[in-house]
Each structure stands twice: as structure tokens, then as C-alpha cells.
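Look at one record.

>
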Amino acid sequence: MNNKEAGPLKKFFLSLTGGILLGGILSYFFLDYEDSNYVLLNYYGADKKIVKEWDFQFISNAGFIIIGLSVLIFLIWTYFERRSNGF
């Protein structure tokens, strides 16, 4: 391994970090987050109770985008690393 190559763990963690940043930004701007809160009226004597839930479809889609971008960054990085070494 020469100085131009990154170690496998360093490449993995930087690819994962890049995927989280890019995937998080893309998910925030392009996926529609739907608020899953609802209100229960007259709940055991209380006037109203607000129930807050997570939007699991948004979370899973954002996770798939983050994992996909991380793998893509890793593969592109490996391709250019091998290309620069003459393989």
C-alpha cells in the first residue's frame, strides 16, 4: 500500500460519512415527510391527547438512499484508486 491509497477502514468510514451527509440532504429536500401525529379527543377524561409517531416509510427510504450512496462512493473511490495505480 503506497501513500496514495487509503486504508480499507478509512475508505469505508469516509464513504459512510459522505453517504450520510449526501443521503441526508437528498432525503430532506426530495422525500415528502408526512407528519404522523394525531389527536385523541376525550381520552380517559383528558380533553385531548396528542400522539406522536415516527414516519417509518420516510426513515426506511432515507436509510436506503444513505446506504446506496455510501456504496456508490466506495465503489467510485475504489475504481479511481485502482485506475491511478495502473490496474
Notes: The helical segments are 8-30, 56-85.
